[in-house]
Design brief:
By secondary structure, the chain is an alpha/beta fold. The chain has helices spanning about 40-45, 60-65, 70-80, 90-100, 155-160, 180-190, 210; strands at about 1-5, 20-25, 30-35, 55, 80-85, 105, 115, 120-125, 135-140, 140-145, 165-170, 195-200, 215-220, 225. A 7-stranded mixed β-sheet has the order 6-5-4-3-2-1-14. It has a 7-stranded mixed β-sheet with strand order 7-8-9-10-11-12-13. Bound molecules: zinc ion (2 copies).
């Protein structure tokens, strides 16, 4: 299983960078997790959109979804449909974002399990300012992605059996918003069996100084690929 970071910033990107988006390649399937600003260009530099088996959204905040809008123009032009899995609601934004003829939309919640190219995918409702579902993908290896969340004990449920945790835990010590911070990353890293990939960096704070030196914390680079 391979993970490529399309973008790691939120809620807006640093200059020259991109918001949340990740490409997971496992058992021959290509699965995109989130599609924030700047990620479509990066994705297209790596794969043909026709090769993408599924796009899964953790939640509908702009920094995780906005590149779905220009993606629609591409899909119209080539007359191609993509499968999108998301927790839908009756909000105007959800309709604007996801109602499109080239999006084959499936609603997800905690009861959903998917088989995408032989990979098992399951979901866990976390603790964010809107409904956010962590995504756990098991192929030959297991990757869990928190999406956006404050600390909750459910992170340990996610980590159970996972080889890597892609976690919204790159905010500074004492951060008060609906995200985890570097102290959470350090706590998770006590489990040496799980690689902690610290994502959702803010444009104004670099967590490297606070997180360097922990052997199983990865400070990911955009467009880099990691073996899970
Ligand atoms: Zn976010
Ligand atoms: Zn969010």
């Amino acid at each position: 299983m391979k993970l490529t970071i399309l973008g790691k910033y939120g809620p807006y990107p640093k200059a020259g960078a991109a918001c949340s988006g990740y490409l997971v390649e496992s058992k021959g399937a290509k699965i995109v997790l989130d599609m924030g600003a700047g990620t479509l260009s990066r994705l297209l530099s790596l794969v043909d959109i026709r090769e993408v088996d599924a796009i899964i959204l953790s939640h509908l905040h702009y920094d995780h979804t906005s590149d779905l809008l220009p993606l629609r123009y591409l899909l119209e032009e080539i007359d191609h449909n993509v499968k999108i899995y998301a927790h839908t609601d009756d909000s105007e934004w959800c309709k604007i974002l996801l109602n499109h003829k080239n999006f084959l939309l499936t609603h997800i919640d905690e009861n959903t399990t998917l088989d995408i190219g032989g990979n098992n995918v399951s979901f866990l409702l976390m603790n964010h300012s809107v409904d956010n579902y962590a995504i756990k993908i098991t192929g030959d290896r297991t990757l869990a992605y928190t999406g956006d969340t404050k600390y909750t004990d459910k992170v340990y449920t996610l980590m159970s059996g996972a080889n890597a945790l892609l976690a919204d835990c790159a905010k500074p010590y004492g951060f008060g918003g609906p995200h985890m911070n570097v102290s959470d990353a350090i706590a998770f890293a006590r489990d040496k069996d799980v690689k902690i990939i610290a994502t959702h960096w803010g444009a104004g704070y670099n967590p490297t100084d606070d997180l360097k030196g922990y052997e199983n914390i990865i400070l990911p680079e955009e467009l880099a690929t990691y073996n899970i």
